[in-house]
């Protein structure tokens, strides 16, 4: 029963600690600029001990990315209660929280240049693993949206609207990170409206989409974001 | 003065021929699946002779990508005459022509997995060169749009609308390639409307954008795509 003595961590506990430390560093600067020495120092252990748990920076990066992906996907979960527009707005807030917390790492990853190791090459397996994680987050977002719309199987035009809107949300977040010249709260609301606008454009030319859109907006309150947008658009045109 | 004898090509001419042959092959199948042997065979020369002009598949891929980028950027050029909506629709048609012609290569490139050589690694320089070419095409699209809107320096919200719309056009084209379940003509028109819709959403909350939008639509004809969309949206709401 000793006190004041640092307890030795188990293997899995140490691995999880290292992943957390690495994720924090990879989030705050471009992963290319973070060294194993720095990770070891931040974790309070020696460089060889880091290698004992992870064969290299790349495997540690992949583990950190996996944790970040799971974290982000978890933020998409939202109770199926109340107007859909307000639900989407809450998810957008948590999405921008995530982007804010992981800014430089998120940018580096989404711009296609994650964690190239010191020898300047990266394997095909690494590229595939990274892309698979990005795709899994996009798929989680897609599945959540369909679930909130209560649609089991999306017709092609709805799939297009939802998936292309997800890419719009990604590029909007990336552009926001580059200088933060527009308040994020404005962009969170704008993305909710963009979703409605893209669905409306598709609905303007397709009956199936028009029927879907009517179902989507029928429970929106008169003081919710959708109604507000419509009011503002009408004012704009007059 | 011989006839019927194959003329020997000069170095630059041979290089250009090889780039054309390679681009054609890289466009029709995923670049990963195209071998130097195949390129040599399609060009009617020996494998060692290909290596005489290009040190490897990667440098040939980069050269082909450069030509494709220039080709695509050139298709954005459109006379500054007539309604802006109709101009954008013509550019969208040429954009989908390009995507159609280079389908598998375009998909592989935009999904972040271009031309990994046989040894399974790719250099940081290659990743940078590839990303720089993609960015140069996006920048060309951005510059063209601003020029057509007659805006020298875009305020942050307009820059966001234009750049995020460009990424929307990319993802829409990629989703279209994956099964072609929606007619491309519909998507070309939809993207023109999406541009107007995203600008309108931004304008609904910002006076500067509202003023810009009014300038943008003031010359649109009553039978043009913008007016048609507005009519259809109003019908949808009634």
TrEMBL record, chains A, B:
HTH tetR-type domain residues are 12-72
Q: Which domain of life is it from?
A: Bacteria
Q: Please name the InterPro entries in this protein's record.
A: DesT_TetR_C (IPR054129), DNA-bd_HTH_TetR-type_CS (IPR023772), Homeodomain-like_sf (IPR009057), HTH-type_TetR-like_transc_reg (IPR050109), HTH_TetR (IPR001647)
Q: Which SUPFAM superfamilies match?
A: Homeodomain-like
Query: Where does this protein bind DNA?
Result: 35-54
Transcription regulation is among the record's keywords: yes
Q: Does the keyword Transcription regulation apply?
A: yes
Q: Which UniProt keywords apply?
A: DNA-binding, Transcription, Transcription regulation
Q: Which PROSITE patterns match?
A: HTH_TETR_1, HTH_TETR_2
Q: Which PANTHER family match?
A: HTH-TYPE TRANSCRIPTIONAL REGULATOR RUTR, TRANSCRIPTIONAL REGULATORY PROTEIN (PROBABLY TETR-FAMILY)-RELATED
- What protein is this chain from? TetR/AcrR family transcriptional regulator
Its lineage reads:
Bacteria, Bacillati, Actinomycetota, Actinomycetes, Kitasatosporales
């Amino acid at each position: 029963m000793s006190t004041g003595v640092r307890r030795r961590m188990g293997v899995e506990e140490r691995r999880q600690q290292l992943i957390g430390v690495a994720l924090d560093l990879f989030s705050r600067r471009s992963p290319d600029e973070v060294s194993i020495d720095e990770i070891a120092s931040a974790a309070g252990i020696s460089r060889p001990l880091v290698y004992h748990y992870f064969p290299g920076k790349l495997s540690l990066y992949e583990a950190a990315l996996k944790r970040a992906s799971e974290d982000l996907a978890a933020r998409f979960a939202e109770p199926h209660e109340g107007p859909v527009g307000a639900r989407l707005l809450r998810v957008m807030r948590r999405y921008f929280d995530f982007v804010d917390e992981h800014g430089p790492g998120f940018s580096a990853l989404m711009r296609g240049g994650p964690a190239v190791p010191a020898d300047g090459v990266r394997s095909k397996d690494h590229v595939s693993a990274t892309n698979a994680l990005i795709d899994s987050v996009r798929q989680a977002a897609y599945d959540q949206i369909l679930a909130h719309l209560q649609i089991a199987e999306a017709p092609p035009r709805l799939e297009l609207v939802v998936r292309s809107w997800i890419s719009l949300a990604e590029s909007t977040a990336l552009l926001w990170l580059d200088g933060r010249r527009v308040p994020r709260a404005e962009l969170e609301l704008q993305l909710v409206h963009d979703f409605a606008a893209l669905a409306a454009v598709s609905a303007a030319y397709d009956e199936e989409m028009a029927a879907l859109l009517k179902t989507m907006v029928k429970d929106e309150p008169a003081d919710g974001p959708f109604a507000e947008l419509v009011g503002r658009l009408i004012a704009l045109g007059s």
